[in-house]
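Hi, here's the filled form for the chain we discussed.

Project: internal
Contact: R.S.
Residues: 372
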Amino acid sequence: MHIDPFGVEIWMNEWEFKCELNLAETCVESLTIEQLLALSGKNASDLSALLDLKMTYGEIRGSTRLVRAICALYQRQTAENVIVTHGTIGANMLVHKSMISRGDRVVAVVPTYQQHYSIPASIGAEVHQLRLREEDGFLPDLDALRCLVTPQTRLIAINNPNNPTGALMDRAMLEEIAQIARDADAWLLCDEVYRGTDQHGDGMTDAVADIYEKGISTAGMSKAFSLAGLRLGWIAGPSEVIEAVSIHRDYDTISVGKIDDHFAALALESSDRVLARSKKITRDNLAILEDWVAGEPKIAWVKPKSATVTLLRYDVDMPSEAFCIQLLKETGVLLTPGSAFGMEGYLRIGFANPQADLITGLAKISDFLARL
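And the returned structure, exactly as it came back:
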């Protein structure tokens, strides 16, 4: 089976561990186990509870404790509507493999994580892309979406909050998109891995699985929960989807690791404290980035309303990949080229890093821009 090379992952694989300041990072500053224990009201002595954990297979769909904690993140999801996966990347792959067949019509809103158009295309689906535009605040044109979604549409794929723009669709827009899907009797898949990082209110984006009867939400422990090292995600959606996913999942997952399951449950049971930390980091750091953009004449943007990343439009006559490689070699700062998302002329920056790294990295980028 042919599949297109995964642009952003190839970039990160090549450069992520060769930089001094990783402003391409997409996770809120990662937690240590010690920090997770402290946020959970525990300490190092509680690790002794793991000593009796027998390292056999875990519960196939996720432990009862973990699934209960995941359900608490939603308004309408119960245990039969949730299944645990190897990261959100595994969740997305399983949904596409389970729900899409050759010849199906898929509508994908881009830019987004490449899985949502390259996997359906590799299966043989007819993929139609709706491109987000800066002049629309990187929000979808719903009239254009209505034109693309025909009665033959099998699935619509969206990403909210959006990677790489940081744009946020509010509940009213999600309900309109759900109605577009409903009119076509289409599934609506929403990659919600950045859920919990909104810049206002409680920080928690409305979930498509709670809004639409054929809505599918994917998420995981990496971005807002600062625990990418656990490699644990999930799918929330109708039982029909969960059962279809279960058939495919038996071939490539069986179960997630028991230690991953344990620490993910611990974090989700303390989600209020974990997410409070993430909100403070993302909100404080975005204010720093906003001040920097305001004072940098060669940079423009649409200020993000959520997520940990955003796009910067740069006024330099240089392809984005060449810009990022030269920046890295001269300053040690890593960004992600917009070309990895089909967005030439832009750079993706992550702003949920340690604050000192962000401040130092932005100063180095300014010095680099001044020399161009």
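Let me know if anything looks off before we file it.
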